[in-house]
Amino acid sequence: MPSSSRGLSPPPLKRRRLSPSPSSLPKHQPPPPPLPTLPTPNSPLATPHTSFRIYTWNINGIAPFLPSQTQKITSFLTPTPTTTTKRSPSNPQPHNHARPKPPQPSLRTRLRDWSWPPILLLQEIKLAPTDKTSQSSLLRAINTPLDTEPSSSNQNPNPNPDRTADNRNLYNAHFSLPRDPHNATAFHGKIYGVCTLVRRDIPHVQVKSVDWDLEGRVLVTELPKLGIVVVNIYAVNGTTNGYRDPETGKVVGDRHARKRIFHSLLAEEVRGYEEQGWGVVVAGDMNISRGGVDSFPQLRMGEEHVRNRADFEEKFIRGLGMIDTFRMVRGEERKFTYRPTNKPWGAGGDRVDMVLVTRGLEESVKEADILDSEEDRGPSDHVPLFV
After folding, report:
1. Which of 114, 167, 311, 375 is the most exposed place for a label (fewest CB within 10 A)?
2. Cβ neighbours of residue 33 closer than 8 Å, sequence gap 6 or more
3. Taking the model in full, what pTM does it have?
4. Class of the 3-74+102-386 domain?
5. 3-class state of residue 286 by DSSP
6. Residue 321 — left, alpha, or beta (φ > 0 → left; ψ -120 to 50 → alpha)?
7. Number of neighbouring beta carbons within 10 Å of residue 164
């Protein structure tokens, strides 16, 4: 670990081994020992670069990436091209002032540009749990070959699942969508939600939600061949808005308090897996900046925000000894993951999206970065990052 990062991501603390928790451990399937921490060149998990790269991106709504929806919207909103009658001797033809239609954002293009990563974690997809049409549309969008892709049998969106070669550049989509009747009803249920895309040639994958999350914020992917668990997170944003009991609808606190409870439940989930020998990767939008170097022009210093930040540090960095991979690799380099769209690019930003790993996995981390550019942000207000 670079020495410049030690103050930000302290090394794991020695702590006594906890007894298994009856409430959490039985639902986890232990990985079969012994297992490598990284794929070897002969492993079915190996990519062309013999690495296992995980991307994560708060996409701020999946709708722009779904052709069946965006085509209807843009065709309704795009004005009919108009022309002027003004002519000049050098240009006797009418001028066409119609603005060219911007290219539609494409997740498959991103996957191709990122060399078909084994896993892509998406947050804040904003899908209602009853919207099966959009879920199917997403599956088609990520698996339909691009015009630039060679036409071959391995581009079939519905290949034989038993043929690894056919699945090399194709993905399954797994969802955790809000089902809380009192805290996730805005916009007709199109709020929150996470989605994990897993390349189809990755064997023995188990993807599951957790029973304590009803807002579509957590999705767990178990990878027994690697002995790791990847947890897709869209953490609660701390605000003064009320949080209601999911059963009674009674206000039982605000979203700041719920955020700290979310931290506790997530930390227990990580601890449960770690106790069984899994390495754990927690990645996504944590909705918190760790320090001054992570925000511009300044860190939020309201009383509740300071408390939430301290709670995050206590439970994950010190309590579990988790490693902030960007800080481990990049030291105090300033890059941001949240880039507001209501300001000019560069006028502000926060590093609220992270990839954390448990003790022991830090030696396997070879690279980590944030794709901090306006082009990479696309239609979202966050940029992607990877480890």
Report:
1. 375
2. 227, 277
3. 0.80
4. alpha beta
5. coil
6. left
7. 15
